[in-house]
Amino acid sequence: MSIPVVTTIELQSLPKLTSGKVRDLYEIDDKTLLFVTTDRISAYDVIMANGVPQKGAILTQLTAHWFKVLGERIPGLKTHFISLTPPPSVSDEDKSLIRGRSMQVRKLKVFPIEAIVRGYITGSAWNEYQKTGTVHGIPQPAGLQQCSPFPKPLYTPSTKAELGDHDENISPEKAAEIVGDKYAARIEELALKVYSTAAEYAREHGIIIADTKFEFGLDEETDDIVLIDEVLTPDSSRFWPASEYEVGRDQDSFDKQFLRNWLTKEGLKAKDGVEMPQELAEATSARYKEAFKLLTGKTLEEALGEL
Fold first, then answer.
1. Which of 123-137, 152-166, 199-213 is modeled with the greatest confidence?
2. What is the C-alpha to C-alpha distance for residues 257 and 234, in angstroms, rounded to an integer?
3. For residues 210 and 120, is the Cβ–Cβ distance under 8 A?
4. How large a percentage of the chain has pLDDT more than 70?
5. What per-residue confidence (pLDDT) applies to 251?
6. What are the pLDDT digits (tens) for 246-276?
7. Shortest CA distance to 207 belongs to which of 252, 261, 262?
8. Is pTM beyond 0.90 here?
9. For the chain, what is the HEC assignment?
10. Superfamily for domain range 110-257
């Protein structure tokens, strides 16, 4: 039996605040949101016409796992996560729509930057380095090979674009202009700490995190910087199988690089209304699930059975 692909969800028991590329946000009360993750998938900042089976559940359950792991390994880390259980105000009918793909989170002021951390040189960073010897305009040592590790992880922020627009790579100095020096320094420090901690954990479980992006919010009551949104998923990161890693070439991946490669090959990069072949959607789901099992030690079905 085929698994339904959920690209649109309309809850009746909570007011919807906004829809993003993948997530819909609903208001529980003035301090709490319900994040609902659909099976939509985007590449090159464009949403595909069809989705990836069970993607929303994979991202939600993996993010919750990472919040637990990071909270144990980084003393004092604050996250917006509250619970995987929907609030009582959600009707039984709505609960059936969002089973496994929703989480309650704290409502916070969101910083308008993406905190990207790169541990390995690949993708656009590799392309820039070959031309100029820099990454995000930051000079790098000579002699780096494709997919080799940086001497130390690199913080390369970008703007956080509105839906339909494109993120813009910016310097750490520009990020400081946007969010203020005090918060920019703390965001950079936290992003690097979370990445290095997660990379160590992932390597222990057979995965290399080549790069990833984080988002942070501000708890205005305590002035704390808080890790928010999805974290360290195949949607927000490049995951490589550690057993197959080899410097000097493109790597196999557990992320949506399959989709990016197909779009580029077919001349469909950044075009609206593109529908993936069914086999590509199913292959992407299978790879996401494989990464999920390596990182959590359980299948998605086992994780959902615990809810």
1. 199-213
2. 9
3. yes
4. 97
5. 94
6. 999 999 999 888 898 899 999 999 899 999 9
7. 252
8. yes
9. CCCCCCCCCCCCCCCEEEECCCEEEEEEECCEEEEEECCCCEECCEECCCCCCCHHHHHHHHHHHHHHHHHHHCCCCCECEEECCCCCCCCHHHHHHHCCCEEEEECCEECCEEEEEEEECCHHHHHHHHHHCEECCEECCCCCCCCCEEEEEEECCEECCCCCCCCCECCHHHHHHHHCHHHHHHHHHHHHHHHHHHHHHHHHCCEEEEEEEEEEEEECCCCEEEEECCCCCCCCEEEEEHHHCCCCCCCCCCCCHHHHHHHHHCCCCCCCCCCCCHHHHHHHHHHHHHHHHHHHCCCHHHHHHCC
10. ATP-grasp fold, B domain (3.30.470.20)
2-55 pLDDT per residue, tens: 678 999 999 999 999 999 999 999 999 999 999 999 999 999 888 999 999 999
35-45: string of b/e by CB count within 10 Å (b at 16+)? Answer: bbbbbbbebee
Q: How far is CA 290 from CA 11, 60, 62, 112, 239, in A?
A: 30, 15, 12, 32, 11
166 vs 161: CA distance, rounded Å: 6
- For the chain, the domains span 1-107, 110-257
For residue 147, which phi and psi values (nearest 5 degrees)?
Answer: 70, 15
Q: Which two tokens stand for residue 97?
A: 């729509």
Tokens of residue 138, six digits: 């930051």
Asked whether the predicted pLDDT for residue 161 surpasses 80, the reply is no
What CA–CA distance (Å, rounded) separates 8 from 144? 44
Choice among 62-66, 158-162, 163-167, 198-202 with the minimum mean pLDDT: 163-167
CB 195 within 8 A of CB 21: no
**Within this chain, domains 1-107 and 110-257 share the same CATH topology:** no
Domain 1-107 listed as CATH 3.30.200.20: yes
R_g over Cα of the chain: 19
Structure-block tokens of residue 306 = 């615990």
